Amino acid sequence: MTIKTITGKAGIGALLLLACILVSAAHASAFRRVQEGSKIEDFTLETIDGKDFSLSKNLGEKATLVIFWASWSPRSVEALADYQKIYEKRSGAGLQVIAINAEHQEFVPGEMGLYRAAVSLAGAKYPVLMDKSLTLYNEYGVSALPSTLLLDSSSTIVYALSGYPTSMRDELREKVDGMLGLGAKPKEPEIHVAAAGKAVRYLRSAQLFQKRGMPHKAIEAIGKAMEEDPNYAEALVLLVELYEKVGEPAKAEETRARLKTLAK
Fold first, then answer.
1. How far from 4 is each of 10, 166, 231, 256, CA to CA, in Å?
2. What is the DSSP letter of 110?
3. Which candidate, 136, 159, 163, places its Cα nearest to that of 147?
4. pLDDT in tens, 30-55
5. Which of these ranges, 51-60, 164-173, 225-234, has the smallest mean pLDDT?
6. I want to staple 264 with a disulfide (CB 3.0 to 4.6 A). Which of 64, 72, 146, 190 is the partner?
7. What CATH homologous superfamily does 4-27+191-260 map to?
8. Cα atoms in the Cβ-side hemisphere of radius 13 Å centred on 54
């Protein structure tokens, strides 16, 4: 099968367009009532230890990560732990991290032990707040847990992320580092992109299965797409997300590594 190779400025543009198509839905659905460019008004919530905490008095000098999470979400605890690592390495450069628990519509005092256990498991040392009546959760239109906002020093949203997909973590760190002035953004790679044919049709089937909540069927369809075109980058990106969805992180990482080999 012939593989079309896109190079130069046109190739970079095509790659960026592909990336936008794949991730824009995640960004757009993260928060239904606020978006990139919106300014977050000041708020005050209690910390997990019962102390008042105001956003305006605790913004990072250059950037602030705000993560909405819940103890019943395994991906939330994973994100809290990863954000602790980010916080440890970058707090001195002007980064603040704030976690906001959005457990239930009605606060259940008897579950505080669960929340503290999740925070302890994650090793989180940054502020953890309680949105007891889901006031902020509803005001921002949070659509998934975890979901993250990246704010600048004026509390304006510069980036929003729904969930905590493995494929988006590097991008989040790059956004943070860019705001902190910690290194230049790497040059966009050029990759091989499938042109057309059966591979495309199988990918469209996989996307349909994904929308219908049938990840295993979607994985089978992508397998057929890859038989037609082993270097089909768009299919590999979706495959990473599906492996994460079905709880197979090892296969997700293996697929990500395979995707990286397509970079020139």
1. 13, 27, 10, 21
2. G
3. 163
4. 688 999 999 999 999 999 999 999 99
5. 225-234
6. 190
7. Tetratricopeptide repeat domain (1.25.40.10)
8. 4
Whole-number Å distance between alpha carbons of 197 and 229: 9
CATH 3.40.30.10 fits 31-180, yes or no: yes
Decide if 71 contacts 87 (C-beta within 8 A).
no
Task: Give the SS3 label for residue 129.
Answer: strand
pLDDT at position 108: 85
Q: How many CB atoms lie within 10 A of CB 152?
A: 16
Residue 250: both structure tokens together: 């090892």
Task: Provide CB contacts within 8 A for 135, sequence distance 6+.
Answer: none
With a pLDDT cut of 90, the percent of the chain lying above it is 49
What are the start and end residues of each CATH 3.40.30.10 domain in the chain?
A: 31-180
Reply yes or no on whether the pLDDT at 10 is more than 80.
no
Q: What is the pLDDT of residue 258?
A: 81
- Map tokens 């979901």 to a residue: 147
